[in-house]
Design goal:
Helices cover 74% and strands 0% of the residues. By secondary structure, the chain is mainly alpha-helical. InterPro entries: Na/ntran_symport (IPR000175), SNS_sf (IPR037272), YocR/YhdH-like (IPR047218).
């Protein structure tokens, strides 16, 4: 076994190839797929956004995913340390580690607001559990209550600042528990047991939805390409969603890559991770939008979409309370396997940098992210008027929660990805990259072309037209 930085204790790592795949898919698949993807697709007009998103996943996300896992595996350390090692071996400046320090900061910020949404999921688990007790096993959810009542659950939660903060704290505390236990006994355990269960239930719900809701309307909405809708801001939103969903640009996948054994083919596993992640996002869209249209809801309802439309769908479903409860338990699992990866990136860094034990490093990250998350939670109620960057067009009308989301998905992630592409494509020595990427022949040349030219160029253009749309 390889050893850790002291050269004696074995270094932490995944116990097998499939454990890595499950953990990485667990990191990728989460609230980004089920909650953020439908909300962003709806807010950005549907088809054009969705198709551009798929384009970004294949031609930008996938090559960057391979680049990040490759950096991690070669470095076998926290993200900044891995970058520094590769830079040193290539005879380049150690300052390149800044790219991963940005990333670690980004992961920390995402963690803070991600756990707020994790708290909403816990709330719905509670609501469905008590409904199941009240209405019995066979009944639909919230029987006999108008759809407006079901829709009103989320605003009801938003109005209760104490409950929002409490649930956020509970979610981040659960994340803390698993990360503090370590890579193979904590993080890996969650992923191996919970991800397969999640996939199974999710598919079942979608198949049911395909037979009952406004399915064809949803398909048309999600997949009709209207070029006039592809504006700069829509493109930036799509690329940001692709990164968010694939856990890229914030050192998450670099950190997980560091625990991968030498025998794993990183190109192949990257393909599996991106494929599974995109499939779940599209299935989520196909599960949620039929209900949105059938119930006459607005597709651009924003962050509430998943939390409002699906519970309405569960109303008319046989065994609806039970299915609803199972569904939100599964979303909770999927969110947890992502939040552990978000917490792991800054934890691995702090542990190494300050030479701390894992539990202490995890605790420091948890407390700091929890405090920032409180501001995000309060932006839905008592602090809704606080719009710290409202004077900039990109952040117009945004409270803390939206500011943290925009800063990460529309700035830190794309910038992190540009730097990663340049680093792997131009800075790191070819020999070293060749030995890690698991590709050969034309495919390897194509990947190098994407990393060297297409990714940096396309991302720079998208950032500019997304932030300054008047240029177009
Ligand atoms: N990919 C996760 C999701 O879609 O929910 C969110 C995420 C996890 C982003 C880990 C970034 C990260 F490093």
């Amino acid at each position: 076994a390889t050893t850790g930085s002291d050269g004696v204790t074995p270094r932490e790592g995944w116990s097998s190839r499939s454990a890595f795949i499950l953990a990485a898919v667990g990191s990728a698949v989460g609230l980004g797929n089920m909650w953020r993807f439908p909300a962003e697709a709806g807010a950005n007009g549907g088809g054009a956004f969705v198709l551009f998103y798929i384009f970004c996943v294949v031609l930008i996300g996938l090559p960057i995913l391979l680049s990040e896992t490759l950096i991690g595996r070669h470095g076998q350390a926290s993200a900044p340390e891995s970058v520094r090692k590769i830079a040193a071996e290539s005879g380049k400046s150690s300052h390149w580690d800044t790219l991963a320090s940005f990333g670690v900061t980004g992961a920390f910020i995402v963690l803070s607001f991600y756990c707020v949404v994790g708290g909403w999921v816990l709330y719905y688990v509670g609501v469905f559990a008590s409904d199941l007790v009240a209405t019995g096993l066979t009944g639909g959810a919230f029987e006999g209550r108008p759809a407006e009542d079901v829709e009103a659950l989320l605003p009801g939660l938003f109005g209760n600042a104490g409950l929002m903060v409490g649930l956020h704290a509970l979610f981040i505390a659960i994340t803390f528990y698993f990360v503090s236990r370590g890579v193979s006994s904590g993080i890996e355990w969650v992923a191996t047991w919970l991800m397969p269960a999640f996939f199974f239930l999710f598919l079942a719900i979608t198949i049911y939805g395909a037979f009952t809701g406004a399915f064809s309307e949803a398909v048309a909405y999600l997949f009709t390409f209207d070029a006039s809708k592809l504006t700069g801001p829509v493109m930036l939103a799509a690329v940001g969603q692709a990164f968010f969903s694939l856990s890229l640009g914030v050192a998450g996948m670099m950190t997980y890559g560091a625990y991968v054994g030498r025998d794993v083919n990183l190109a192949g596993t990257s393909g599996i991770i991106a494929g599974a992640d995109t499939a779940v996002a599209l299935i989520a869209g196909l599960a949620i939008f039929p209900i949105v249209f059938a119930a006459g809801l607005e597709p651009n309802a924003g962050p509430g979409l998943m939390f409002q439309s699906l519970p309405i769908g569960f109303q008319n479903m046989p065994f609806g309370s039970l299915v609803g409860l199972l569904f939100f338990v599964m979303v909770f699992f999927a969110a947890l396997t992502s939040s552990v990866s978000l917490m792991e990136a800054p934890t691995a860094w702090l542990k190494e940098k300050a030479n701390l034990g894992r539990p202490v490093a995890t605790l420091i990250v948890t407390v700091a992210a929890a405090l920032l998350g409180v501001l995000a939670a309060l932006s839905f109620n008592t602090m809704s008027d606080f719009q710290p960057l409202g004077f900039l067009p990109l952040f117009e009308g945004q409270g803390m929660f939206d500011v943290l989301d925009t800063v990460t998905s529309k700035i830190l992630m794309p910038v992190g990805a540009i730097l990663t592409a340049v680093f792997v494509g131009w800075i790191a020595e070819r020999r070293l990259i060749d030995s890690e990427n698991g590709l050969s022949g034309p495919l390897e040349r194509f990947w190098l072309f994407l990393v060297r030219w297409l990714c940096p160029a396309a991302l720079t253009v998208i950032l500019i037209v997304g932030i300054f749309p008047s240029i177009l």
